[in-house]
Write a structure and sequence with these properties.
Layout (H helix, E strand, L loop, with lengths): L2 H13 L4 H13 L1 H6 L1 H7 L1 H6 L3 E10 L5 E12 L4 E8 L5 H17 L4 E8 L8 H15 L8 E4 L6 H15 L19 H19 L8 E5 L3 H12 L3 E6 L3 E4 L6 H10 L7 H5 L3 E4 L10 E4 L8 H9 L4 E3 L8 H9 L3 E3 L1 H4 L2 H15 L5 H25 L6 H19 L4
Parallel strand pairs: 3-4, 3-5, 6-7, 6-10, 10-11, 11-12
Antiparallel strand pairs: 1-2, 2-4, 7-8, 8-9
Bound molecules: NADPH dihydro-nicotinamide-adenine-dinucleotide phosphate (NDP) and (2Z)-2-iminopentanedioic acid (2IT).
The site of NADPH dihydro-nicotinamide-adenine-dinucleotide phosphate (NDP) has 24 residues, from helix 10.
Length: about 450
């Protein structure tokens, strides 16, 4: 291992000993930059480049106090981690989930810098959210939380500064509540948030964008290897926004999507998931996946984490970080899976990633393959700035073009350092170059 990288990782480890997710993300990125760091070690060392890349520019933390339907007060923690804005305005989602803490948001913000750079669009990286759990809360309670959260968040964000969007637990409903409060506080909304409902200036395709983008990226990667989605069996994990639209696009391309999950169990549906039923359950009724077999009249529900046991060609992990561990990866390989493309952020552990790559599985890292969401967010900002509303077809075509472009950028970057088909290395190096160029141009190095 390159000495400079080793020193920075060691220092990060000491300073962030209680932040395992952040350390994991930093280790993956820094280690894979070895070829390029070694080539320019002296310069980067004197610029303190890796130190600057791994410390967020600013972290905002605040308490969020809200009332439930019985009038009882609750207090949650709220955050916005503004990691790096050399490439463009801070951009990244808001996660509402009980597991949210500084480690999770720093890992997500760090990844977001590379992802956003990879899109080729002028966006820096940020992430925020709260340990508030929207699950099981009434609309009114979610609204109360979002208002209180926005009252603390609003001074830090806005057009030309920092543009938040959705993530786990934050969909169009939450962005509506947040956007309405932001408008009240500041007098204008415009493109201050993305993932807005259409009547508030949202973009067509934003709902579908991460899932569709994942499949466009995967399709391009498979094409390089002489393969496609037609008649392949696919499993998506999760059953939220990313999973549903990845399943939809894969099915449109001729795949049979035989499984999905939530945090309590998983579905196997040999004939292919009934997506109309799934959407109704998850998007309209906000129901649990266990209700799928009864609603669809087919499929089997299993409690627990066994989704990795489904034998299939392609896995698209779309739930959460570290859901796919080494044991799961071994099962996938033993069952003949040939591609794993991440829809979630860092869903595969470092050990599992290594195992998949060593066993010839085509592996696409989320920071590249799930960049469709943030790319479409940028298209939403463009439409807001120009006071336009593009058609579904136009927006979808732009999204596809961006995803195909991302694949080729990182494919080239991996080839350049003699590591063809290692898309982790390709993504990290391609993103790194763009961020470093921008930092140099802005006099930050
Ligand atoms: P949603 O909240 O819509 O859905 C999350 C899904 O993952 C739910 O089905 C949830 O199940 C499931 N899940 C959460 N934790 C676990 C767990 N420990 N084990 C199994 N399933 C779990 O979120 P999104 O679909 O928006 O986000 C999913 C992933 O994609 C995240 O990693 C996010 O960062 C990433 N992403 C999202 C983008 C977007 O535009 N939305 C863009 C790029 C990446 P349950 O209901 O039981 O909690
Ligand atoms: O992880 C992500 O890229 C997102 N949650 C979407 C971010 C965005 O700004 O659209």
């Amino acid at each position: 291992m390159n000495k400079y990288i080793e020193e920075v990782l060691e220092k990060l480890g000491k300073e962030n000993a209680d932040q395992p997710e952040f350390l994991q993300a930093a280790k993956e990125v820094l280690e894979s930059l070895e070829p390029i760091i070694t080539k320019n070690e002296e310069k980067y060392r004197s610029q303190k480049l890796l130190e600057k890349l791994t410390v967020p520019n600013e972290i905002h933390m605040f308490d969020v106090s809200w009332l439930d339907d019985k009038g009882v007060e609750h207090v949650n923690k709220g955050y916005r981690v503004q990691f790096n804005n050399a490439v463009g305005v801070y951009k990244g989602g808001l996660r509402l989930h009980p597991t949210v803490n500084l480690s999770v948001l720093k890992f997500l913000g760090f990844e977001q810098c590379f992802k956003n750079a990879l899109t080729g669009l002028p966006m820096g990286g940020a992430k925020g959210g709260s340990d508030f759990d929207p699950k099981g809360k009434s609309d009114n309670e979610v609204r109360n939380f979002c208002i209180a959260f926005t009252d603390k968040l609003y001074p830090f964000v806005g057009v030309g500064k920092d543009v938040p969007a959705g993530d786990i637990g934050t969909g169009a409903r939450e962005i509506r509540f947040i956007g309405e409060e932001y408008l009240k506080k500041t007098g204008s909304l415009g493109g201050a948030f993305t993932g807005k409902p259409l009547d508030m200036g949202g973009s067509l395709v934003r709902t579908e964008a991460t899932g569709y983008g994942l499949v466009y990226f995967t399709e391009e990667m498979l094409k390089k290897h002489g393969k496609d989605f037609k008649d392949k069996t696919v499993v998506v994990t999760g059953s939220g926004n990313v999973a549903i639209y990845a399943a939809e696009k894969a099915a449109q391309l001729g795949a049979i999507v035989v499984g999905c999950c939530d945090s309590t169990g998983w579905i196997y549906d040999e004939k292919g998931l009934d997506l109309a039923v799934l959407k109704d359950l998850k998007e309209v009724k906000r129901a649990r996946l266990s209700e799928y077999p009864l609603a669809a009249g087919r499929g089997i529900y299993h409690e627990g984490k066994g989704i990795w046991n489904i034998k299939c060609d392609i896995y698209l992990p779309c739930a959460t970080q570290n859901e796919l561990d080494l044991e799961g990866a071994k099962t996938l390989v033993a069952n003949g899976c040939f591609a794993v493309c991440e829809g979630a952020n860092m869903p595969t552990t470092l050990e599992a990633t290594k195992y998949l790559q060593e066993h010839g599985v085509y592996f696409a890292p989320g920071k590249a393959s799930n960049a469709g969401g943030v790319s479409c967010s940028y298209l939403e900002m463009e439409q807001n700035a120009a006071n336009e509303s593009w058609s579904f077809e136009k927006t979808d075509a732009r999204l596809k073009e961006i995803m195909v472009g991302i694949f080729h950028n990182l494919d080239e970057a991996a080839k350049d350092v003699g590591m063809e088909d290692n898309y982790v290395v390709g993504a990290n190096i391609a993103g790194f170059k763009i961020i470093v160029d921008a930092m140099e141009q802005k006099g930050l190095l």
